[in-house]
């Protein structure tokens, strides 16, 4: 007999194959287990609960933090012919009443709610009378106090497992930070949850790190090796983006700067040039990148150490979206470590927060200093296991590093 989840995938969503992780998550939910799914942005988390929702029938409740996110999802589901509804404060009363009638009549498969709406006594009481088969908590990192996206309304969701003891719950997030993940598992599931981490590998991106000596020269020679290709160069300071862009321009490379201190017009003009022309190098602070989806970015070059391994992963992920060979290259030096430590110490934040930030920095430094396959370290951090990749500097260069200088720097940094 045909696999029902595959049939839904094909007939409803029009896809022939599950992405890494989607089938395992679906399988676990159909077997009645709780799941914490950790997958990067764009990996396809929505289908991880939408497919089981349709296989299970009955009603699936989806908790989502933002009305805009819900509306997008519902529009997409309705286009696919799926009965999806939301009840939220941006709709007028009549629309909410009509939605509730459909839900109560059993016509709705997926009901999207904000956490504060779901967790009212009246809503919970009304839902308890319905045939609820699955609960999905999207953007589940919002429950973690340590994360940047903490939402107090999410804390209430820890009551769900007691209120609906027989309903499998799936929590979804792209945040793979170990502390956050443990927090989610503890709060939503009291630790009793199957955690699935998948889809983080970007095998076409070659990973490399080089001791920082003369950043400008090192950048120029790297960029010249990728002449004619589009690339992103990340710098720590605004001033440096402008200096680096000017230096590249002086050496015949089409380069533009981007940082939050520029006028909105200048930023937009540079961003448009980067998006529409090919072969432009964007020299930017981390202000650049959110929502940038340019498929043919051939490389991401870090002239300075990023803030964490997660930030690094996010940033290099902007390269090679077209699946072609791409490169992530970083310059790494002692001064960077010191600078990052100062950043953390100067922050106006609780001691526990700083302790964690230093821990994350240590993890990143470990990645920079390793002689092991970098991809193994990177994926290992996200909880994925992997074989040596053959596409990082350490795999490609098996001769042991005898760079006494780099080592001395690290020792002296302690
Ligand atoms: P996430 O929530 O993880 O960021 P989404 O659920 O929004 O990702 O999905 C990202 C994109 O991937 C969507 O356009 C979706 O249609 C597409 N997608 C998801 N699963 C598959 C699949 N199995 N095959 C092809 N495309 C998929
Ligand atoms: Mg999503
Ligand atoms: Zn490797």
UniProtKB/TrEMBL annotation:
<keyword id="KW-0233">DNA recombination</keyword>
<keyword id="KW-0413">Isomerase</keyword>
<feature type="domain" description="Helicase ATP-binding">
    <location>
        <begin position="26"/>
        <end position="194"/>
    </location>
</feature>
<keyword id="KW-0234">DNA repair</keyword>
<keyword id="KW-0479">Metal-binding</keyword>
<comment type="similarity">
    <text>Belongs to the helicase family. RecQ subfamily.</text>
</comment>
<keyword id="KW-0378">Hydrolase</keyword>
<keyword id="KW-1133">Transmembrane helix</keyword>
<dbReference type="GO" id="GO:0016787">
    <property type="term" value="F:hydrolase activity"/>
</dbReference>
<keyword id="KW-0472">Membrane</keyword>
<keyword id="KW-0812">Transmembrane</keyword>
<dbReference type="GO" id="GO:0003678">
    <property type="term" value="F:DNA helicase activity"/>
</dbReference>
<keyword id="KW-0547">Nucleotide-binding</keyword>
<feature type="transmembrane region" description="Helical">
    <location>
        <begin position="49"/>
        <end position="69"/>
    </location>
</feature>
<keyword id="KW-0238">DNA-binding</keyword>
<keyword id="KW-0067">ATP-binding</keyword>
<protein>
    <recommendedName>
        <fullName>DNA helicase RecQ</fullName>
        <ecNumber>5.6.2.4</ecNumber>
    </recommendedName>
</protein>
<keyword id="KW-0227">DNA damage</keyword>
<keyword id="KW-0347">Helicase</keyword>
<feature type="domain" description="Helicase C-terminal">
    <location>
        <begin position="215"/>
        <end position="365"/>
    </location>
</feature>
<keyword id="KW-0862">Zinc</keyword>
């Amino acid at each position: 007999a045909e696999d029902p989840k595959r049939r839904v995938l094909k007939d409803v969503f029009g896809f022939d194959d599950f992405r890494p992780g989607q089938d395992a998550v679906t399988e676990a939910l159909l077997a009645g287990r709780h799941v914490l799914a950790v997958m990067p942005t764009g990996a396809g988390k929505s289908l991880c609960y939408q497919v089981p929702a349709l296989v299970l029938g009955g009603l699936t409740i989806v908790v989502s933090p933002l009305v805009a996110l819900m509306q997008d999802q519902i529009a997409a589901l309705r286009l696919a012919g799926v009965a999806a509804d939301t009840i939220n404060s941006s709709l007028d009363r009549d629309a909410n009443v009509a939605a509730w009638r459909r839900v109560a009549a059993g016509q709705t498969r997926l009901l999207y709610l904000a956490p504060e709406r779901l967790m009212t006594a009246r809503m919970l009481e009304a839902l308890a009378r319905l045939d609820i088969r699955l609960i999905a908590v999207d953007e589940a990192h919002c429950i973690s106090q340590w994360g940047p996206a903490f939402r107090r309304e999410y804390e209430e969701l820890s009551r769900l497992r007691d209120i609906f003891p027989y309903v499998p719950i799936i929590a979804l997030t792209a945040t793979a930070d170990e502390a956050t993940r443990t927090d989610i598992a503890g709060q939503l599931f009291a630790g009793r949850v199957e955690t699935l981490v998948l889809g983080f590998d970007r095998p076409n991106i070659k990973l490399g790190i080089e001791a920082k000596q003369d950043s400008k020269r090192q950048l120029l020679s790297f960029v010249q090796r990728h002449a004619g290709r589009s690339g992103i160069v990340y710098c720590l300071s605004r001033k440096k983006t402008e200096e680096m862009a000017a230096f590249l321009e002086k050496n015949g490379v089409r380069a533009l700067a981007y940082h939050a201190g520029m006028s909105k017009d200048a930023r937009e003009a540079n961003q448009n040039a980067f998006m529409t022309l090919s072969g432009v190098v964007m020299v930017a602070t981390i202000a650049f990148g959110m929502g940038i989806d340019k498929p043919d970015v051939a490389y991401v070059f870090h002239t300075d150490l990023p803030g964490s391994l997660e930030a690094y992963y996010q940033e290099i992920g902007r390269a090679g979206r077209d699946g072609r060979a791409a490169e992530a290259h970083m310059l790494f030096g002692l001064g960077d470590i010191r600078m990052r430590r100062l950043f953390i110490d100067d922050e106006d934040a609780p001691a526990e927060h700083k302790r964690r930030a230093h821990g994350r920095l240590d993890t990143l430094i470990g990645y920079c200093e390793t002689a092991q396959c970098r991809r193994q370290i990177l994926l290992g951090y996200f909880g994925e296991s992997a074989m040596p990749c053959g596409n990082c500097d350490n795999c490609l260069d098996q001769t042991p590093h005898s760079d006494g200088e780099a080592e001395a720097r690290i020792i002296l940094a302690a």
